[in-house]
Amino acid sequence: MYIFEDLIGYIFLASLLGIVLTIIIGPFVYLTIYIRNKREEKAIELNNNLKREFTNRYQLDIMPNNAIIESTEECYEENYYQLNFPHWKFENMNKTKDNRMNNNYIVWEDSYLYIDNYLISFDNPLSLMDCIYHLRNNSVEIKESFYEIEKINKEKSKFEYNNTLLSITDLIRLYSSKPTDFEYYCANIFKKIGFEAVVTPLTNDGGYDIKLLKNNNIFALVECKLFDKTKVGRPLIQKLVGASVTEKANNLIFITTSDFSNEAIEYANATHVQLINGENLIKLSERVYHSDNKNYFDEDSVRLDIQDFLEYIPKDILAICYDNM
Fold first, then answer.
1. Tens digit of each residue's pLDDT (9 = 90 or more) over 49-101
2. pTM of the full structure
3. Cα distance between residue 217 and residue 281, in whole Å
4. Calpha distance 67→127 (Å, rounded)
5. Which residues make Cβ contacts (< 8 Å) with residue 252, sequence separation at least 6?
6. Distance between CA atoms of 151 and 188, rounded to whole angstroms?
């Protein structure tokens, strides 16, 4: 009986102590949360104001939502940027997610843009590069990074090599280790002809590799196949025709370094698909690359794109970055 009464007493004292602590500590906890929320609101408001100031100053339409901008007291001597790449906490040998590990997650490394008196951080490196290209289009000078210089040197070597191409064997030897570069080779041919040529991301295989634009409208879809001796069959051309329905493209072009089967040629004629085999591709490239008034390398036309980031970001994370630009 006494034990029961003592227990009730302890419970009463504990409840009373809890009430007292709530009355005393509660306001401090509430005040702390209130101050923290106000600080966060003020930081968001300041960031939004700086974004508006920045976009107005550099004539940008919009800044990425994931960008955090700060104003510095002094201007940087030159505008430059620093790329850092996201990765999995636990990764496989090819840097993709290791599904054997629990609680695996993406480690986002911020990338930075240093421009005049602004410091801007991006958790998505693709968003940073998109911002940089918009700034450069508005005549803002930003120093090239190591990654850009490396690509410029590679593209310059390819350009010089293209001007001496004599056979399909040369093309296959140059691009067999990375067939996606063959798509850029073909795209560059169309650019020199006068089209805007957009190579589709590796993460989005919609049945075509290049989208040709004229006056901001889709002119044609192009599929490219780096084949040695294998002929392109009808199924691959059917896939390109299927893509035209989705993209509403009136013109279709299929390029290969080899040739086309009889069934593929018959189907292409019936569906009005223009076929360019290896022999005709060499003739076209010779006409483009050996034209006297176009035989120069334009460094300003070289840009880092999603294909280049595959060397530094695993495919599964790169797809997330692309979707969240």
1. 888 888 899 988 878 878 889 888 888 889 999 999 999 999 898 888 989 99
2. 0.58
3. 25
4. 8
5. 220, 221, 222, 223, 240, 241, 244, 271, 272, 273, 274
6. 15
